[in-house]
Amino acid sequence: MQEREVPEYLHHVNKRLEEEADRIITYLDQSTQKPLIATVEKQLLGEHLTSILQKGLNHLLDENRIQDLSLLYQLFSRVKNGVQALLQQWIEYIKAFGSTIVINPEKDKTMVQELLDFKDKVDHIIDICFLKNEKFVNAMKEAFETFINKRPNKPAELIAKYVDSKLRAGNKEATDEELEKMLDKIMIIFRFIYG
After folding, report:
1. Could you give the number of structural domains in the chain?
2. Which structural domain, as residue segments, surrounds residue 150?
3. Which of 87, 129, 139, 159 would disulfide-bridge 69, Cβ 3.0–4.6 Å?
């Protein structure tokens, strides 16, 4: 684990698990399959959950590495406490990334669009990589509520200004359908704000 980058290590683990499954079919009795695979999973994944997440999760999320994130979720689902460890890091990532958008006054002009883009990215990762796992959806909502309320009133004020500018522009910038979709997304963000 120490010499490899996280994506490379994940592919290595996946390959080793496939090879072990093939060896069992070819050389061993089927009754040994579960304990042997569980041992390999524990040694290659279970012992390294924290280091894998600390070393590579933020990078995978920043770079939007969908395939690698899917593999990470798939592999972590196989070991005890794997999904829970991933969930905790997921919450921390959303809070940290979201806070950089909300807290920095220099980002006020772009805050709403950045929040919309970030929410789209997070939703996409949940849908594709985390197989719409309800725990990840709920954790995302709680994390958004936490960071968006770090600056009381400002996100709400900026959302109102953003909506006003979009409605004034009307059909010049977007079709009615596009405007409707955008307003729906903004309302989702707005619901995270404590009023």
Report:
1. 1
2. 6-191
3. 129
| Averaged pLDDT score across all residues of the chain | 95
In contact, 60 and 69? CB cutoff 8 Å: yes
Which phi-psi region, left, alpha or beta, contains residue 152 (left: φ > 0; alpha: ψ -120 to 50)? beta
Record the pTM.
0.94
> Does residue 1 fall inside a structural domain?
no
CA angle 138, 139, 145 (to 5 degrees): 90
Greatest alpha-carbon pair distance for the chain in Å reads 71
CA 6 to CA 59: how far, in whole Å?
A: 9
Higher pLDDT, 2 or 11: 11
CATH number for 74: 1.20.1310.10
DSSP category for residue 48: G
Distance CA 113, CA 12 (A): 38
CB 155 within 8 A of CB 146: no
Q: Flag whether 132 is in a domain.
A: yes
Quick one: pLDDT at residue 106?
Answer: 95
pLDDT of 170: 75
- 83 near 135, Cβ under 8 Å? yes
